[in-house]
Amino acid sequence: MSIFSRIFNAKKQENHSLEEGFSAGQYKIPHHLAIIMDGNGRWAKKRHLPRVAGHKEGMETVKKVTKLANAAGINVLTVYAFSTENWSRPNDEVSFLMKLPVTFFDTFVPELIEQNVRVATIGDIDRLPETTKQAVLDAKEKTAQNTGLILNFALNYGGQQEIVDAARELAREVAAGDRLIEQIDRDSLAERLTTGFLGQYANPDLIVRTSGEERLSNFLPYQAAYSELYFTDVFWPDFDKADFEAALAAYTKRDRRFGNVKA
Ligand code: FPP
Predict the structure, then answer these.
(1) pLDDT at residue 23 above 60?
(2) What positions does the entry give for Mg(2+) binding (predicted)?
(3) Of all atoms in ligand 1, which is nearest to the CA of residue 45?
């Protein structure tokens, strides 16, 4: 057998076992999985590499996890790529992080189209450098008709600020006489958050954070009210299929009661 057919068959087998694993229905699948991709810097440091090498490898992990999420039948995968607080990092790290979406979409959009994945964002993308913003808008446009997994990037995202913005919008409507104070409720607020476009899937069922840190760091604070939280010590660039399945296995065992009692 030639080297090419060996690689081809190995790939085929890998995909087959991946799909088989998930279609066996051994896991409860979250509709919306959100991930705080932490530990890129420490991953690089461990290898005596510059921090940005961790981000580059982390980008490759986003590609792998997108495929896994799609194969698992997840509806929305939100990844925390850049927070409003990340601007205070050293300039060269910020500019590297700003270039990543350009590289990511340059190399990955054809595959996203092939996989029927739609790209979306939450956060204020208007404040991103123009080339980054254009790459993001372009990817969104090219994948707009896709009906499978929504790959949702939190970019220049800050959870407390989005609540403030939604509150201001509602206040403006009240001031203009278009809304009564009594008509401010959870639904009208949720619709005005940047996740509003996700409708019934706006709130993550499962939030995963890598690298051993156990906090939300201003990620989806309103939407996380009833999310299941899963923490793993694995650094994001090392997060692989086994880690993905471990998260799903843990989620499968959770008893979600939403404040109610067990039936
Ligand atoms: C946190 O690790 C990670 C980030 C702030 C950036 C995450 C970005 C990626 C994984 C790449 C995203 C890809 C695209 C396509 C936009 P850290 O730097 O805080 O790690 P540390 O805590 O070990 O220092």
Answers:
(1) no
(2) 38, 228
(3) 23
Domain annotation covers residue 261? no
Question: Does the CB atom of residue 59 touch ligand 1 within 6 A?
Answer: yes
| Global pTM value | 0.91
107-136 b/e (C-beta count within 10 Å ≥ 16 → b): ebbeebbebebbbbbbbbbeebeeebbebb
In a domain, 127, yes or no: yes
**Is residue 20 exposed (0-12), middle (13-18) or buried (19+ Cβ within 10 Å)?**
exposed
Look-up of token digits 């490759």 = 60
Work out how many domains the chain is built from and give that number: 1
Determine if ligand 1 sits within 6 Å of the CB of residue 125. no
**Active site residue ranges:** 38, 86
Q: Give per-residue pLDDT as tens, 226-258.
A: 999 999 999 999 999 999 999 999 999 998 778
Which segments are annotated as binding site?
Answer: 38-43, 51, 55, 83-85, 87, 89, 209, 215-217, 228
CATH number at residue 146: 3.40.1180.10
Residue 11 lies in a domain: no
How far, in Å, is the centroid of ligand 1 from the Cα of 41?
A: 7
Q: Is 47 a domain residue?
A: yes
Q: What is the mean pLDDT of residues 73-93?
A: 97
Is residue 105 pLDDT above 70, yes or no? Answer: yes
Determine the Cα–Cα distance for residues 67 and 117; give it in Å rounded to an integer.
9
Per the structure block, which two tokens stand in for 112?
């996203």
Q: E-assigned strands of 198-263?
A: 206-209, 228-231
**CB 58 less than 6 A from any atom of ligand 1:** yes
Please say if the pLDDT value at position 76 is more than 50: yes
